[in-house]
Specification:
Low-confidence stretches: none
Number of strands: 12
Helix content: under 10%
Strand content: over 45%
Distance between the termini: 50 Å
Length: 186
């Protein structure tokens, strides 16, 4: 090391109890930017096996809610082209399946936030599905991708193709929602 620092010296073990207020219990933390918009997304342990998701859009109220699975990534975009932002948080269950889910919020013209409904996989799309989801926001289109399993495949060794589902966001009766726009297998 040429920075002049040293680790030499005498050290002693402290016997005091740990001040847990100083421990960062964040499971996930990131800052997201899209044009002039920015937000902080964090997930912390709730102490009971679950998590607390906090989304802090710059200059706005915190969105906070309990979630059951850890956050693996997050993204921001303008999915409906209205000039306002959507925040997407991607979670993945712990265990061999690694089942993914999407939590999304859409700005109501910069005045408030509403949760966007994300659909469960239909039976048609569940065929060959055993988890291991990946989510991406590509040019403001939500993409879900997962391996397909053949009948005798182990969870760790899929032999089938990959299914990719593209979702677009529409105005629903009660709220905005994601709907399947395209499905590809390769």
């Amino acid at each position: 090391c040429s920075g002049g620092a040293t680790l030499g010296g005498v050290y002693q073990k402290l016997s005091d109890t740990l001040d847990t207020r100083q421990v960062d219990n964040s499971q996930y933390a990131t800052s997201l930017n899209y044009g002039d918009f920015s937000t902080q997304v964090t997930s912390t342990s709730d102490g009971n096996g679950g998590y607390v998701l906090k989304i802090q859009p710059m200059g706005e109220d915190i969105i906070e809610r309990p979630i059951s699975d850890p956050v693996v990534s997050a993204d921001v975009g303008d999915m409906n082209g209205d000039g306002y932002h959507e925040i997407l948080v991607f979670t993945q269950s712990v265990g061999s399946g690694s089942y993914g889910d999407v939590i999304a919020y859409s700005s109501n013209k910069g005045l408030s936030w509403s949760e966007v409904s994300y659909p469960e996989l239909t039976d048609k799309f569940k065929q060959g599905y055993m988890g291991h989801d990946e989510f991406l926001l590509v040019e403001n289109v939500l993409v879900r991708r997962f391996p397909l399993y053949l009948e005798n495949d182990s969870n760790a060794n899929p032999q089938g193709k990959t299914r990719q589902i593209q979702y677009r966001m529409i105005e629903g009766e009660a709220s905005r929602q994601f709907v399947v726009d395209a499905v590809n297998e390769f």
